[in-house]
Amino acid sequence: MRRISTTTSSSSPEINNNDNNNNNNPHEEDMRRVVMVGKALRCIPPPPRPLSSDGEVAAALCHLRASDPQLSQVMDVHNPPTLQHLYPPFHSLARSILYQQLAYKAATSIYTRFLSLVGGESGVVPETVLALNLHQLRQIGVSGRKASYLHDLANKYKNGILSDEAIIAMDDRSLLSMLTMVKGIGTWSVHMFMIFSLHRPDVLPVGDLGVRKGVQILYGLDYLPRPSQMEQLCERWRPYRSVGAWYMWRLVESKGSPPPLPSSGPPLLLQHHPQEEEELQQQSHLLDATSIEGIPNLRR
């Protein structure tokens, strides 16, 4: 049982998360720690309970209100996150690649043609994607570079380096390491995938311009915090930094001022993956949208 209490009122609410099934195998947790990573079995920490689990969003709200009074004021005027599971991991990652660096309407048009090409949503699987040649993908508007990204992702599934089951079972650190091996997928893309597809509760997208701008507004900073500063500024949100990030997007949206791309200064994103520069450009397209609600592939 986990108990989370808050001191913001005289009667401290409590949120209890109990397993409804008392007949679980006592070794179930140990079994979940052994997953196939690449072509080898590895013992890794189990992933945290997703935010879509019963009671997790409520627990997150309670914790954030107690730990950050300034964030609590933002929470008073915005609805809590509503997270839905739409696609399996491979489908979500392929869709993310297709949407990169494109305006939402243009990307949706290409994605719709892509679905027709593979025979619908059920056809977005590695085998079908590998069967598509460059000419077929170019005909529906997919660039040669993105076609190579899609094929690299599908090949890593075919070769057993990745699988939907392994992705779901990995802890956050292992997942970041494995997915950034895929061409076209950098740290920011993995953070978005972990929050909006896997519903991981404690992901802080330190390189996201919207989250950084939200933190600047929240704490009244006269500078846009660097990724290296974000960890310290948002430390109090653990273990629910994903929900804190959600409210930063809401805060920036309500102010109606997406953060501009700076023309100079230090790099904005984490530097250990060559895809980050493209992802910075992708963020500029997303932040030009009139509303975060208009970006359902990432924000809803």
Automatic annotation (TrEMBL):
Q: Name one GO molecular function term.
A: DNA-3-methyladenine glycosylase activity
Q: Which GO terms describe its cellular component?
A: nucleus; protein-DNA complex
* Protein name in UniProt: HhH-GPD domain-containing protein
**Keywords in UniProt for this one?**
DNA damage, DNA repair
Please report which protein family the annotation says this sequence is part of: Belongs to the alkylbase DNA glycosidase AlkA family.
- Annotated region Disordered: where? 1-28, 258-300
Upper lineage is:
Eukaryota, Viridiplantae, Streptophyta, Embryophyta, Tracheophyta
One BP term from GO: DNA alkylation repair
Q: Which PANTHER family does the UniProt entry name for this protein? A: DNA-3-METHYLADENINE GLYCOSYLASE
Q: Low complexity bias located where?
A: 1-25
Which part of the chain is the HhH-GPD domain? Answer: 98-253
Gene3D superfamilies, A to Z: 1.10.1670.40, Hypothetical protein, domain 2 (1.10.340.30)
Q: Is the keyword DNA damage assigned to this protein?
A: yes
